[in-house]
Design goal:
With 423 residues, the protein is an alpha/beta fold. Helix content is 32%, strand content 14%. Helix 2 runs parallel beside helix 3, helix 6 crosses helix 8 and helix 6 crosses helix 9. The structure holds glutamine (GLN). The site of glutamine (GLN) has 13 residues, from loops.
Amino acid sequence: MADLNAFVTREEIPSTEEGPLSGRTVAVKDNISTEGVRTTCGSNMLADYVPPYDATVVERLREAGATVVGKTNMDEFGMGTTTETSAFGPTENPAAPGRVPGGSSGGSAAAVASGEADLALGTDTGGSIRCPAAFCGVVGIKPTYGLVSRYGLVAYANSLEQIGPIAPTVEEAAELLEVISGPDDRDATTREEGGRADYSGAADGDVDGLDIGVAPELVEGADEGVVEAFRAAVDDLESRGATVHEVSLPSVETAVQAYYVIAMSEASSNLARFDGVRYGVSGGYDGDWNESFAASREEGFGAEVKRRILLGTYALSAGYHDRYYAKAQDARAWVKRDFDEAFEDVDVVASPTMPVPPFEMGESLDDPLTMYLADANTVPINLADLPAISVPVGETDGLPVGLQLVAPAFDERTLVRAGSALA
Ligand code: GLN
């Protein structure tokens, strides 16, 4: 097979101990710090950046016996849904030639789908694990906010993002989650709950008595072929003893807007550190600080990153803060409440992961709005801090379709149980 461009850097980081992942190879997304191995975030800004320390998750991989085989391609700083905004060129989708692998963790999903790595780590701010898993026909888990340490992750929108596993099967994704999850003194947002539970032990495929909610808001409007594959999978779960209920999530209509206001606002503040002095390409200081700052950012950042910094800065500026950022926070609280209410009646909520099949290469690049709208089913989960899994459930016109299951906070075991029934 021709090179998919799934990796920005291929370099082995050997394991330090024998453990549950001995003999397994893991690809790591290039926004997760690796000591001595460059970590670019898919950006020219960090093309030569070599971190002096390992992220907690990388430390845990090595202790668990895994061999890290390289750093995977991604949308620049995680901003995208196709992996095309990478400064290192796009990644091909091994499951759908000529199509994007999804994003922003497209390199990680492509590496797993093509067998270039047994397992991979991605990050999910608004769908970046689940989208590429769905588009490449593999499994991805976005953990509950606070289950996995973000120490060593280069921040895009820190109130929304989590590191999580991408794997060929639900059981293998659960095994990787077991290794990376659990509290960390170096990330104060990690929580005791759920800790290093036995997730893989839950992969028994038993859905007898499971109550599944389907919200029309997350199904209507999706591509017909996607909906067909989704419905067939839900019917299959029903035939194995699950019960399907309709639930209502009216707030999700506001989720894409709220997500992008919050994500861009956080990004504009997080990315202020790339000034060519502490980090990033040098703007060549010649006496004028503003000019050198602007020159560094002009050269270092791509178009999508610049767009988001501008919009985020605007949303936070005096006079507009209440109109945009504060309102988005209200919408976020509403989305949380809606899911809380749904979980009074059901154990999981099911939907198509992506409302569309994988885009053709180049199709969405000039049309950011279409790209943002493709995140309609994934971003509500990050707004609500909840866990979700994407599992492959067949194809439409030969293109992979993923089904998303969402559970209450720290109930990843139920996701693994129900997800394993679909495989
Ligand atoms: N597509 C979304 C965005 O561009 C999600 C990205 C992500 O989860 N990192 O922000």
